[in-house]
């Protein structure tokens, strides 16, 4: 993560008022993740896709990928993994 930050390909921060203490306290956005975002947009527009009903609410309205958009995640401390949060174009974190 430090290397990505030094390269300028990621941005991170704290959740402030959205924080759930000892569970979800920080976020990270990976810049220019159009591949992941394009997959989500494809699933969101295809009601026959097996993951269609499993997408988060924001994804159901995500039909195109803005140029240079970033994919953002929150880190769940107890599960010790990153969870998809959404595109920065929707979250407006930076």
How does this model look, in words?
The protein is of the alpha+beta class and 94 residues long. It has one domain. 22% of the residues lie in helices and 27% in strands. It has three helices and four strands; from the N terminus they run αββαββα. The radius of gyration is 14 Å and the shape is globular. The mean pLDDT is 79.
Count of β-strands: 4
Elements, N to C (H/E): HEEHEEH
> What's the helical proportion of residues?
10-25%
> Which of globular, elongated, flat, extended, rod-shaped describes the shape?
globular
Q: Which class of secondary structure composition applies to the elements?
A: alpha+beta
- Summed up, the helix count is 3
Number of domains: 1
Report the span from N to C terminus: 18 Å
Largest sheet: 4 strands, antiparallel
Give a brief rundown of this model:
22% of the residues lie in helices and 27% in strands. With 94 residues, it is of the alpha+beta class. The protein is globular.
Reconstruct the topology from this structure.
Elements: H1 2-7, E1 10-14, E2 24-30, H2 34-44, E3 71-76, E4 81-87, H3 88-91
Antiparallel strand pairs: 1-2, 2-3, 3-4
Give keywords.
94 residues, alpha+beta, 3 helices, globular
């Amino acid at each position: 993560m430090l290397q990505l930050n030094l390269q300028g390909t990621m941005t991170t921060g704290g959740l402030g008022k959205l924080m759930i203490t000892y569970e979800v306290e920080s976020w990270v956005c990976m810049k220019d993740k159009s591949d992941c975002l394009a997959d989500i947009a494809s699933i969101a527009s295809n009601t026959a896709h097996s993951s269609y009903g499993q997408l988060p609410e924001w994804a159901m309205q995500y039909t195109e990928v803005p140029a240079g958009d970033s994919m953002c995640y929150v880190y769940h401390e107890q599960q010790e993994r990153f969870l998809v949060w959404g595109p920065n174009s929707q979250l407006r974190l930076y």
